[in-house]
């Protein structure tokens, strides 16, 4: 948990530093989209850091068996992904706007903690922000994952076969089945882990926050049908 909090804090410092650098010396277009640029890059960094950090910490433990390795890795990556995906949703649903005060509020003037007045919900309420956040995850993220899982392997296999044919002198030679299988992608040691992790996170979105986004079960069903196909 301390490692996750350190990673989140580092990401916040990165975003603040990058925004200040962009506003200090960037062009008009870059300054106009500074927050979008920092948000996208910070999200990519989080996705890269969490998985590599989980593998690194698990390797430091040096588990004796494969099952112990997978259990340790599962525990770490689930904590990282839980903080990455659920922290913003929990904050918007239960904490955002709770510490905001208005002029004349005596409690805010007497308490040091309640002097943080920059956080307030949209005029429509925090439920609308939570709905947008869930829509981005359940629609945008799932569509992107299906795109990467379906089209990227096909492109990668086509590119490897193309390179192999270009390096082969005798094009009339018939390759055996095992020779053709040599050019297939290596699924890796934890090939199915990401699939199970995706299902667990999706189940949490559907059960915990369905009141904010009622269409979440429908998009989860469509995503699972696409995953099966």
Automatic annotation (TrEMBL):
Residue ranges of coiled coil: none
Ranges that cross the membrane: 12-30, 36-57, 77-95, 200-222
Anoctamin transmembrane domain: residues covered: 3-229
MF annotations from Gene Ontology: chloride channel activity
Gene Ontology CC terms, in alphabetical order: plasma membrane
PANTHER family, sorted: ANOCTAMIN
Protein name, entry field: Anoctamin
């Amino acid at each position: 948990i301390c490692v996750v909090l350190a990673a989140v804090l580092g990401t916040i410092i990165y975003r603040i530093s990058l925004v200040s650098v962009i506003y200090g010396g960037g062009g008009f277009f870059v300054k106009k989209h500074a927050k979008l640029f920092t948000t996208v890059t910070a999200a990519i960094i989080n996705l890269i850091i969490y998985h590599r950090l989980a593998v690194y910490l698990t390797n430091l433990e040096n588990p004796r068996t494969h099952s112990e390795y997978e259990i340790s890795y599962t525990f770490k990556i689930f904590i990282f992904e839980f903080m990455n995906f659920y922290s913003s949703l929990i904050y918007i649903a239960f904490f955002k706007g709770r510490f905001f005060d208005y002029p004349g509020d005596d409690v805010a003037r007497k308490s040091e903690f309640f002097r943080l007045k920059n956080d307030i919900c949209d005029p429509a309420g925090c439920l609308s922000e939570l709905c947008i956040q869930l829509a981005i995850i359940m629609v945008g993220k799932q569509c992107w994952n299906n795109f990467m899982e379906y089209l990227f392997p096909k492109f990668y296999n086509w590119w490897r076969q193309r390179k192999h044919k270009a390096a082969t002198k005798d094009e009339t030679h018939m390759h055996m089945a095992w020779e053709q299988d040599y050019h297939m992608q290596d699924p890796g040691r934890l090939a199915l882990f990401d699939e199970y992790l995706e299902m667990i996170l999706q189940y949490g979105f559907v059960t915990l926050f369905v009141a904010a986004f009622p269409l979440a079960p429908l998009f989860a069903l469509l995503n699972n049908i696409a995953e099966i196909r």
